[in-house]
Design goal:
The protein has about 130 residues and is an alpha/beta fold. The protein has a single domain, classed as 3-Layer(aba) Sandwich (Rossmann fold), CATH 3.40.50.300. Helices cover about 30% and strands about 15% of the residues. Strands 3-2-4-1-5 form a five-stranded parallel sheet, with helices on both faces. Helix 2 links the parallel strand 2 and strand 3. The model has no long low-confidence stretch (mean pLDDT about 80).
Length: about 130
């Protein structure tokens, strides 16, 4: 169950493909559906989350763009306007901007493709048992 207190959730994955934007949007939509004032801050230059909001004709949850240097100010402003659940969607590359986002977040989620785990627990011959 989602808590009613303010929370920033940062979503980062160093490679494209595992669905980080989809996860960010679903988390915010679930928070909104649970009755929270939810916001997605899209720091990814690809702006996929922002495009999603446009396709939905800006129906909640709200999505805004922000360059990482302005992120703290955007979060403070959003909290002042009643945001309870903020999801920050990041670019696919780990860089200084991503580190700045990690410092702001209450929780960091790192989705990964299942391919990374295929070799875990396999014997040396490569056969799954």
């Amino acid at each position: 169950m989602l808590e009613s207190r303010h929370a920033d959730y940062r979503n980062h994955q160093p490679e494209e493909g595992p669905g980080k934007t989809t996860l960010a949007l679903h988390l915010a939509a679930a928070a909104y559906d649970a009755g929270h004032v939810a916001l997605v801050i899209d720091t990814d230059p690809q702006a996929t989350a922002s495009q999603w909001a446009s396709w939905r004709q800006d129906a909640p949850p709200e999505v805004i763009d922000s360059p990482p240097p302005r992120l703290a100010a955007k979060i403070e402003q959003a909290i002042g306007q009643g945001a309870e659940f903020i999801v920050i969607n990041t670019p696919p590359h780990a860089d200084s901007a991503a580190r700045a986002v990690v410092e702001i977040a209450d929780l960091v989620l790192i989705p990964s493709s299942s391919q990374r785990f295929r070799s875990v627990g396999k014997p040396d011959d490569g056969e799954a048992r």
